[in-house]
Structures are given as structure tokens and as C-alpha cells.
Amino acid sequence: MRRNALFRIDPDEIEDRLRAVNAPLLAQAEALLDEARGTWRTGAAPRMRRDLGRLRRLAEDIRRIRLSDTAPLREAAAAGKRVFAETESRLAVARDALHVRISDLEFPGTAIPARVDAPLAAPARALEGTSPIPDGPDRATTVIEGFDRTALPMEALRPYLTDHAIRTALNRHLAEHGPTLGPAVRYRTRAPA
Length: 193
What we know:
This protein has about 190 residues and is mainly α.
């Protein structure tokens, strides 16, 4: 594999330049954070509400400026993705098709039926017109081709669910059903900004 010689990008230089150009804005944010800490200690709700609004507005400004200042970097990354994504996808589909075909030949009758949205025969089309692919290692693995979420044994999966996945599910449940999950979930009402 060749080394990247097309572009020379120094992340430290980019960070230094972003900090220098946005120094007044970053200093304003630090000052507002210090002020909000002091307001929090006073316990004065009207002042806290004022600071909450100021923090929100400044965060929105910083986000807008961040997106504007880093737009060329995102555009460059998107150009790279456009150049390579289709080929990467076709290679992945061909690899999957070979895995399925080898599995069917070497382990006939071992597929476990499941509901799958896309037909398994579709990846084979990716191999049309390609040259022979060298043999891979002789090591079988089991993969998940699909699942029926209504029949999943959720208790068996519980140890493998990340806190992020659980929090996402809890937030969606809260949005649709309100705070109804009882003592397993602690809810708190937040004041409007």
C-alpha cells in the first residue's frame, strides 16, 4: 500500500490557526463560563436563567463559526469519499458474496433461517466481470444475516448493550411514552431555557 503523498496537512498548525483567529470568541466563552459559575453559587434563579440564555446563544455562535471555519476540511473529506466510496462498497459486496458462497459450499445446511430485508443472492452480481480472487484463510466464522427483533432474547443481550445504546432507547421511550418506566429510571424535570 502506498503512503499518502498527495496532501500534507498539519493538524497542530490547523489547531493553532483556529485558536488564533477565534481568540476573542474563545476568551468571551471563558469569561461567560466564569460568570455562570459565580451565578450558580448565588442560587439566584433569574440571573441563572439569564446566563442560561447567554450560554445557549454563545454555544450556537461557536457552533456556527466552527462549521464555517472547518467547512473546507469537510469538503475535502467528502471529495475523498466520493472518489473511493463506490469502489469500497463494491469490494465489500463482492467479499460478502464470496463468504456466503464458500459457506454454502463448505458448510451446507448450516444457515439458520431469519427474516432478512435484502435477498442474499444480490451480492453475487458484484462478482460479474471480475477476475478470480485468491483463496483466503481456511477459518469459518458465523455471521448475523438478519434478525427478528420481536423474538430476540433481550435478557441474554443485556450485558452487550452499551450505556449509549440504552440511553438512546430510553430517550426515545421518554419522547413517545413520557416518564413511565418506574424506579429503574430516574427522571428530572428541567426548567425551560
